[in-house]
Amino acid sequence: MEKLFSFRKYNRLKRKVDFExxxxxxxxxxxxxxxxxxxxxxxxxxxxxxxxxxKICKSVLRNREKRIIREFFRKAKVEFAxxxxxxxxxxxxxxxxxxxxxxxxxxFNILVR
Length: 113
Hints:
Number of strands: 4
Order of helices and strands: HEEEHEH
Number of helices: 3
Strand content: 15-25%
Radius of gyration: 13 Å
Strand order of the largest sheet: 1-2-4-3
Structural class: alpha+beta
CATH class: Alpha Beta
CATH architecture: 2-Layer Sandwich
CATH topology: Ribosomal Protein S5, domain 2
Number of domains: 1
Distance between the termini: 27 Å
Oligomer: single chain
């Protein structure tokens, strides 16, 4: 039995073809910190990919940012109206935690509708 709030391998977007599909045909939602690319998926699950450049910050902070985004996705994916392929690009590091949480909440609330 699958756990609803888990983040498994099949929830990851990995193939180059899938990335290109999201970038070419998907919609874009941009905030101060993130750029979200998303497209409805034909698969039976939601998939996520996170892109963060080495130029933005050190590896500890990059990994922390990825953990935060994955956690939001893990909790929100159960409520999505459709299945989506999502690519999150971190544009710059935001130290304001409240602002970061609001940006992530706003985006994932778009997908719930």
